[in-house]
Amino acid sequence: MSTSKLTDFKVLVFDVYGTLADWETGIYQGLKPMLSKYRASSGWSRKQALDAYSAVESDLQTKYPNLLYSDLLSKVHEVMEERLKAASGAPCRNVYSRWKSFHDT
Fold it and tell me: Residues 58-73: pLDDT tens digits?
């Protein structure tokens, strides 16, 4: 059996997400401030948050297969927030109270 030396290789590849970097904790910690803002997600567990993240990520990777991963991370956060706003009723909740009545009403 021959033993390889590091200098025998021209390129080394590492799968850093989940291997060298704690990807799940990083994603979850990054999502927590947003999740706490919306009724639809304020009580989510870590698993629920990561499952939701993965679903959006998968959708976006299918839609934008050539998107750089760093750009994908931003886009996932943006789309998740849009969905949570819609699911929580956040954009409209306080709008009606500011509507003015017609003067003859």
Answer: 999 999 999 998 899 9
Residue 15 annotated among the catalytic residues of the structure: yes
Count Cβ atoms below 10 Å from residue 34 Cβ, excluding itself: 14
| pLDDT at 33 (0 to 100) | 94
What are the boundaries of each domain within the chain? Answer: 23-90
Cβ contact 24:74 at 8 Å: no
Q: How far apart are CA 37 and CA 81, in angstroms?
A: 10
Count Cβ atoms within 10 A of the Cβ of residue 79 and give its class: 0-12 exposed, 13-18 middle, 19 or more buried: middle
Catalytic annotation, pick one of 8, 15, 59, 104: 15
